[in-house]
Design goal:
Elements: E1 4-8, H1 24-37, E2 43-45, E3 51-53, H2 55-63, E4 68-73, H3 79-92, H4 100-112, H5 124-130, H6 138-143, H7 149-180, H8 203-218, E5 224-227, E6 234-237
Parallel strand pairs: 2-4
Antiparallel strand pairs: 1-4, 2-3, 5-6
Helix pairs in contact: 1-2
């Protein structure tokens, strides 16, 4: 883990070709944050005390008349990597966005604690817009209309309505079908013969079937006359 060291602010050297403009408004907000919460994010410098990342914090420290500020000395990057990292560090911050609902929840929690919300560096007008007794999402939808949020909500609502209507229609159709064709319980019993398409078996059918079975099992084998191929004598086979 890289060690944090305190450096005299007068010993630090701003990078002359810093590609990021530090507006006075940005410096003022960072200075306010440092004043409220302390210098929690160290400045990255090389071994010659030239600033790699943290120019706005450096200028905010000057505004607050700080004598020393925390720094991390970067020793494992080449000069080319340092130049690239300066650009990347500023660029990646542009890819993140606020989640309005979660932000509103966090600000509301701080408000309940009587915390000074201005210390979050949001303007009062922004805080008033984000925090409301009854959350109204319409202003946020209008603000982000260019991103297609409104179209999405309208399409989603239309889809949900159609889905609900379809489900209701199917439910009503199933109910009507059940009413037209009441459920008949099928009972499996000896009175149902699967060989004659579920027709009811009569006493006569049962008697005929029993006679056929008795004839099959009780019938004596037929005798067959045959001749011996050696002596030519004839005799019966198949009987007991």
């Amino acid at each position: 883990m890289q060690k944090i060291v305190n450096k005299k602010i007068t010993d630090l050297i701003p990078y002359v070709n810093n590609p990021r403009n530090n507006t006075q408004s940005a410096i003022d907000k960072v200075a306010s944050s440092i004043k409220n919460f302390g210098f929690q994010n160290p400045i990255l410098i090389d071994e010659k005390n030239e600033i790699i990342c943290g120019h706005t914090r450096f200028l905010a420290g000057q505004k607050l008349n700080l004598k020393e500020i925390p720094c991390i000395v970067v020793k494992d990057l080449t000069p080319a990597q340092i130049k690239a990292y300066r650009i990347a560090d500023n660029k990646v911050a542009e890819f993140s966005e606020w989640n309005p609902e979660i932000l509103e929840t966090e600000l509301s929690y701080l408000k309940e604690l009587d915390f000074e919300l201005e210390k979050t560096e949001f303007d009062t007008s922004e805080i008033d817009r984000l925090i409301q007794e009854n959350i109204d999402y319409e202003p946020e939808i209008e603000r982000r209309e260019g991103e297609g949020i409104r179209d999405y909500i309208e399409e989603k609502t239309e889809y949900d309505n159609k889905k609900e209507a379809y489900t209701n229609d199917r439910s009503e159709a199933n109910t009507e079908e059940k009413e037209e064709r009441p459920y008949e319980e099928t009972k499996f019993s000896p009175n149902t013969n699967p060989d004659i398409e579920h027709k009811e078996v009569t006493a006569e059918d049962i008697q005929i079937r029993e006679e056929e079975r008795a004839e099959t099992f009780n019938r004596k084998p037929q005798l067959v006359m045959t001749m011996c191929p050696e002596c030519g004598a004839e005799f019966e086979v198949g009987g007991k």
